[in-house]
Amino acid sequence: MKNFSFYNPTKILFGEGTIKDIAGEIPKELKILVTYGGGSVKRNGVFDEVKEALQGYEMLEFGGIEPNPTYETLMQCVEVVRKNKIDFLLAVGGGSVIDGTKFIVAAVPYEGEPWDIVKTYGKVIKRALPFGTVLTLPATGSEMNNGAVITHKASRTKLPFVHPLLYPRFSILDPTKTYTLPPGQIGNGVVDTFVHVTEQYLTYPANGKVQDRFAEGLLLTLIEEGPKALAEPKNYNVRANLMWCATLGLNGLISVGVPQDWATHMVGHELTALKGLDHAKTLAVVLPVMLDIRRKEKKEKLLQYAQRVWGINTGDDDERIDAAIRKTREFFESMQVPTRLCDYNITADIIPDVIEQLKAHKMILLGEKKDVTPDLIESILKKCL
Amino acid sequence: MKNFSFYNPTKILFGEGTIKDIAGEIPKELKILVTYGGGSVKRNGVFDEVKEALQGYEMLEFGGIEPNPTYETLMQCVEVVRKNKIDFLLAVGGGSVIDGTKFIVAAVPYEGEPWDIVKTYGKVIKRALPFGTVLTLPATGSEMNNGAVITHKASRTKLPFVHPLLYPRFSILDPTKTYTLPPGQIGNGVVDTFVHVTEQYLTYPANGKVQDRFAEGLLLTLIEEGPKALAEPKNYNVRANLMWCATLGLNGLISVGVPQDWATHMVGHELTALKGLDHAKTLAVVLPVMLDIRRKEKKEKLLQYAQRVWGINTGDDDERIDAAIRKTREFFESMQVPTRLCDYNITADIIPDVIEQLKAHKMILLGEKKDVTPDLIESILKKCL
User: Fold this and answer.
1) What residues of chain A, 96 to 125, have a C-beta less than 8 Å from chain B?
2) Measuring CA to CA, which residue among B288, B292, B194, B291 is closest to residue B249?
3) Can you tell me the distance from the alpha carbon of A191 to that of A189, in angstroms, rounded to the nearest whole number?
4) Which residues of chain B lie closer than 8 angstroms to A7, CB-CB?
5) How is A95-107 classified by DSSP, letter by letter?
6) B261: region left, alpha or beta (phi > 0 left; psi from -120 to 50 alpha)
C-alpha cells in the first residue's frame, strides 16, 4: 500500500426531509446565493423547499448553470457574487451545478483571470468562499469531494481541477428528491458512479485489501440496485443506496494508497467537449474497450473483478476477462445507456479531433502507469465505433 | 435506510515515515503536551521520532496513562495542562492513550467536576483543546472518531462518552510502528476491530447495502490478514491493511443509517472493570454466545454473515448460523485470544457482580432493539464460563 493522506470534512445530512436542516448549517448573518441549473428544481418543488428552509436569511438566486458547466456562464455568476457581496453559496442540483459552484467560489476572490484556476488544475487557488449543496442527481460525487470539471466553450476544452478549499461545508442528500429524475439521468448516474469506481479499482494490485473490498461493495450494490431504480422509481431504499454509492464512489475513500487510472474519463471529456455527448455515455462507450485493450496490464485486477463482482469462476484467464467485460457492457445497456459511438451517430471522423485535443491538453501519457499514449487511444476509439 | 448525518474531519496521514509530517499539522506557536502510556514508545524509538519532528516547539510530556485509562491518572494530567497553559495535546500510543487524551482535552476547560463528562456520556462538553494522535496499536478506532471510554477506579466503572469536539485534528498511522507489538496485542487488536464491525453489522436488515458490503469487506480483510500479522510481524502490507481496518471499523462510516447493537461491549466493559480482563478478550468471550442466544432476532443478518463472510452455503438456517458462530470463535482462537471465561480463571461468581454493575450504570435494555435484559445477559454469561 502506498502512503496517503485522507481528509474529508464535508458533513453529510442524509435522508427524507433533511432540506429543512440547512438552516442549522449556515450562520444567520450570512448573505446567500442559491445556484441551480435548467430550472427542474423550480418545477419539482425542491427550490421552494430550500427557500422555506432559508427563511430569515438574505438570499439571492442564480439559475441557468448548464450540464457541463461553462466558464462563460459561471463568470456571469462570479460578477453577481462580487457585486452583491455574497458570503455563502448553496448549490441546488446535480454535479454540474455543484462543479460550477466550486469554480465560482474559487474565482470570486481570485485576482487574475479565473480560467487560470482550471488551466493550473487548481494550483493557483489561495482562497474560496464557503458553500454547501443540496444534491438532486446522484452521479458525480462532487457533493463530498474537492474536485470539479469545467468546460471552456470557446476553446472546446473540458478540464478538471481540485483544491482542499473546495470541499462543501455540508451536503443534503434526500433520496426522495431523485424520484422525478427521467430514466436517462438515472442510467447516466449509475454508469458514472460505476466508472468512477473502476477508475480507482481496475489498475494493478497494490495490496489495498480494504480499498478493493469497498470498491467491489460499491460495484455490487450498483449492479443490484441500478436496474431496480429504473423499474421502481419511488423505491426509497433503492434510491438511497444509489445516492450513497455515488457519494462514496468519489469521496477519496476508495482511492487512498492505491493507483488510479482515469484514462477513460480523460478521453470521455474530449468526446463531450467536441460532440456534446453526455459524460456518462462517453464512459459507457470507452470503458469496455479500454479494459479490453489494456487487459494485459490490468490482468490481475480484471480477474479479481470477474470473480468477486461478477461471480465468474470458469474458463481460462482471457475467457474470464472477456466475460467480465461483456457483463460490464450488458450492465450499462441494461441501464439504458448504449455503449457504441454509432448508437449516438458519432463516426470515425471524430477520432483525429479527440487525439488532437488530448495532445493540446497535455494528456499524452494517461493511465495508472502513464503508458496510455495517443496511439493507443486511437486504436481504442476505433473499437468504440 | 434510516436518516443519518456523517461528519468526520480527522485528517489521516498514513504510511511509513509519516511521523515527520506532524510539524506541518500544528501551528508553530502552540505549546504542546505529548501524552503516552507505559513507556514502550520510549523504548522502541517512537517517542524520539516524535520529539525530532517537534523540534522548535515548546513541548512537555506526560507518561503513565494505563490500559483502560483511569479518571484518577488523567486528572493528574489535567492539572499539568492547566498549570502549564498547554495549547495542543499529542497522544502517542494506542486507544487507551488516545481515549485518555480525549478526556483530558474536554476536562481542562470544564468548570465543574470532570467526571460529569463521563457520567453524562459527553453531553456537558462545551469546549475542548485541540489534539492529534500518533497511533502505535491499531484496535480501537479512537484515532478517527469522537468517542472514548474511561474507567473510574474507585467505583470500578468503565463508561463511554462522545462529542463532536473530540475528533483528533490529525492522526499519524505508520504501520511500521506496530512491528514491535507483542503477539498478544496484535491478537487483541484484530479481535477488537472484528467486534466493532459486528456490533454495527450483525443486527437486523435495514437496507443499508453499501454499509453491509463495507462491513463484510472489513471482516474479510481481518480474517485474511489477521493470522499473517502473527506469522510475519514485519510484513508491511499486512500491518497496513490491519491498521486501516481498525480505523475504518469505528470511524462512523459503516454505522450510518443502520441499527447498532453494542451489548457485547457493554457487558465486556463490566468484565474489564471488575476483573481487569483485556477489553478484546472480554469481547472474544461474550460475542459468540451473544450471537448464539440472540440468533432468532439476528437471523437474517447471521445468515448473510455466514454466506458472505464465511462462504457457508449448506445446511438449514440453524446449521449455517452454528457454523458461522463456530468459525468466529475459531478465528478468535487462531488470533491467540481464548474465548471462554475459564481460560482466564474467571468463575461463575462474577456473574451477579456484572449484572449488578450493569444495573448501576443503567444498562438494563441493551442491543439494537433494546430487548437485551439483565436476565438475558445472565444466561449469556453462564454460557461463557
Assistant:
1) none
2) B194
3) 6
4) 9-12
5) HHHHHHHHHHHHH
6) alpha
Cβ–Cβ below 8 Å for A3 and B14? yes
Please tell me if residue A226 touches chain B, with a CB cutoff of 8 Å.
no
CA distance A251 to chain B (A): 12
Q: Is the CB of residue A13 less than 8 Å away from at least one CB of chain B?
A: yes
Domains plus CATH for chain A? 11-177 (3.40.50.1970), 183-382 (1.20.1090.10)
**Rg, C-alpha atoms of chain A:** 20
- In sequence order, the β-bridge partners of residue B34 are B61, B90
Q: What ipTM, to 2 d.p.?
A: 0.97
- The radius of gyration of chain B's CA atoms, rounded to the nearest angstrom, is 20
- How many Cα atoms within 13 Å fall on the side-chain side of residue A167? 19
Distance from CA of A46 to the nearest CA of B (A): 18
Helical packing angle, A317-334 and A279-293, nearest 10°: 170
The pLDDT profile of chain A, 385 residues, written as one tens digit per residue, is 999 999 999 999 999 999 999 999 999 999 999 999 998 999 999 999 999 999 999 999 999 999 999 999 999 999 999 999 999 999 999 999 999 999 999 999 999 999 999 999 999 999 999 999 999 999 999 999 999 999 999 988 889 999 999 999 999 999 999 999 999 999 999 999 999 999 999 999 999 999 999 999 999 999 999 999 999 999 999 999 999 999 999 999 999 999 999 999 999 999 999 999 999 999 999 999 999 999 999 999 999 999 999 999 999 999 999 999 999 999 999 999 999 999 999 999 999 999 999 999 999 999 999 999 999 999 999 999 9
Q: Tell me if chain A has a CB within 8 Å of the CB of B342.
A: no
Whole-structure pTM over 0.95, yes or no? yes
Q: Do A214 and B209 touch (CB under 8 A)?
A: no
Contact B6 A12 (CB under 8 A): yes
Residue in chain A lying closest to B17 (CA): A3
The Cα–Cα gap between A276 and A157 comes to 12
The answer to whether A60 and A116 have CB atoms below 8 angstroms apart is: no
Q: How far is CA B146 from CA B78, B106, B141, B298, in A?
A: 19, 11, 10, 28
